[in-house]
Amino acid sequence: MLTNAMEWHPEHSFILHQCKQLMEGGGWEVKISHCFREINQVADTLAKVGSEGPVGLRVYDTPPVEVRTALYADTVGVFWPRRVVS
Questions:
Q1: 58 CB contacts (<8 Å, ≥6 apart)?
Q2: Percent helix, strand, coil in the chain (nearest 5)?
C-alpha cells in the first residue's frame, strides 16, 4: 500500500500517511520489498491480531499466544516451502 498508488481504506489512511511522510522526509533511504508470509509468519500473525479489535497501539510484555507457535518454528528453523509459478 505504501509503494503503489492505490486508494487507502479510511481506517488505515492516517497511519499510512504518517509512514509515507517518514519515508520521504526522514533523510534516509527506504526500501520496501515483498516477503511471502511463510517466511515471516510472526509478522503475518501479528498483522492479523492487530487488525482485529480496536484501532490503536498495543504493547506486549510477552509474545501473544497467537504467535508463539510461529516463534518456536523460527527458533528451531522450520522450513516452509512455497511453490511459486512464474
A1: 50
A2: 45, 0, 55
Cα separation of 50 and 67, whole Å?
A: 12
68-86 pLDDT, tens digit each: 988 888 888 887 777 878 7
* Cβ contacts of 73 within 8 Å, gap of 6 or more: 41, 80
Count of other CB atoms within 10 angstroms of residue 70: 19
Encode pLDDT of 5-17 as tens digits.
677 778 888 888 8
Looking at residue 14, the DSSP 8-state letter turns out to be H
- Cα gap 59→2, rounded to integer Å: 24
